[in-house]
């Protein structure tokens, strides 16, 4: 059940033999893992990245391609729950991530289908509208650029589709996530990283000498340090991570090309709805997980017919002639506080994931951060330390 992005797979990374040793092994071929491998290779480390399927098979190739600011929860929610410094941290990380993507665009000579459109966060009821007014006030007081808007400014049909006033974030944008991923992978290979697809890690052993032994049906790799960039699947190799990263499904559909109906990406209903329109007019509609919260837990890639029906209705409300042409789902890694995890879980073992639906906005930069932690040039980031949760030691 591939996404619409998966038609873009220009490179294959395969080899019959696994290297017996390396300085650092990265497990997971998404945006975070590849960014970590790139940063490690640039530092001169002998790094091997192992991906069980193809690059971007997980959430990095199944999202909507929104390049947003901040964390999964809005600035005001993070400020209230974790404090203003953490809210500012998440804004700074997203901005650093955006600069990283733009620098990569310039250095690679690729446009990555990036569009500097801004993004809208709209309300669907009076309570959300009031909350978004408060969000805008808090952000402007903090020096951030955000504009109060009516729903019609995001798309002429949206007021009739049930959307109300909200906020416009002019610095956000949208892109093709797998184009970004493959440019990162190509750059990492040129820097010296070895990327291997089709390698399923069955076991990770911490040896008496402090090294790690990675066991796969295709062979074994011994590494001095390991980065697990598995997002929703962190618990598969670190059982204690199941206490703080939960895998949940997100449902998406794409229509035939339509006339312009959306000016920029749209979030609504506390993030449970999200829509965008591609340059060719294709409308991408996702979300409604809140209609089946208990059902949409786990790692199985399966379409939820009830949610897909709601997405059908949503697409037709936005444009009456919308007809779904493609459906898919993806597995997100959600944490209890909706903040990512990045950092050590013991000597030589590092985790990065739990992006809670904001992976494009945070995974590349946090992959770079975790690599710098491995290298000893960056300390832990306390609000994102995986050991902050009970059971995380």
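^ structure tokens above, recovered residues below v
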């Amino acid at each position: 059940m591939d996404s619409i992005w998966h038609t873009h797979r220009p490179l294959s990374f395969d080899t019959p033999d696994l290297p017996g040793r390396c300085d650092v092994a990265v497990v997971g071929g998404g945006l975070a893992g590849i960014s970590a491998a790139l940063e490690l290779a640039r530092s001169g480390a002998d790094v091997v990245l192992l991906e069980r399927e193809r690059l971007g098979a997980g959430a990095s190739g199944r999202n909507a391609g929104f390049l947003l600011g901040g964390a999964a929860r809005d600035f005001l929610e993070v400020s209230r729950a974790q404090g203003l410094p953490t809210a500012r941290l998440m804004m700074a990380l997203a901005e650093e991530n955006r600069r990283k993507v733009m620098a990569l665009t310039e250095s690679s000579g690729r446009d990555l289908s990036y569009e500097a459109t801004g993004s809208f966060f709209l309300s669907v009821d009076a309570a959300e509208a009031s909350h978004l007014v408060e969000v805008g006030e808090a952000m402007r007081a903090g020096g951030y650029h955000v504009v109060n808007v009516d729903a019609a400014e995001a798309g002429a049909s949206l007021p009739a589709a049930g959307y109300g006033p909200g906020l416009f974030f002019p610095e956000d944008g949208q892109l093709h996530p797998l184009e970004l991923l493959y440019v990162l992978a190509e750059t990492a290979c040129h820097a010296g990283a070895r990327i291997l697809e089709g390698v399923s890690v069955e076991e990770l052993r911490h040896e008496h000498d402090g090294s790690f032994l990675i066991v796969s049906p295709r062979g074994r790799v011994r590494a001095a340090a390991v980065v697990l960039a598995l997002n929703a699947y962190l618990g598969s190799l670190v059982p204690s991570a199941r206490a703080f990263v939960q895998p949940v499904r997100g449902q998406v559909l794409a229509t035939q090309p339509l006339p312009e109906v959306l000016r920029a990406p749209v979030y609504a209903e506390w993030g449970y709805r999200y829509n965008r329109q591609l340059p060719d007019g294709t409308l991408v509609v996702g979300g409604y997980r809140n209609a089946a919260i208990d059902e949409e837990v786990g790692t199985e890639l399966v379409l939820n017919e009830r949610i897909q029906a709601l997405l059908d209705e949503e697409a037709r409300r936005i444009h009456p002639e919308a007809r779904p042409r493609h459906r898919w789902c993806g597995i997100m890694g959600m944490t209890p506080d909706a903040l990512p995890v990045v950092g050590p879980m013991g000597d030589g073992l590092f985790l990065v994931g739990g992006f809670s639906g904001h992976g494009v906005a945070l995974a590349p930069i946090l992959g770079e951060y975790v690599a710098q932690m491995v290298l000893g040039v960056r300390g832990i980031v306390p609000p994102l330390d995986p050991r902050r949760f009970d059971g995380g030691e």
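The two ends are 36 Å apart (CA to CA).
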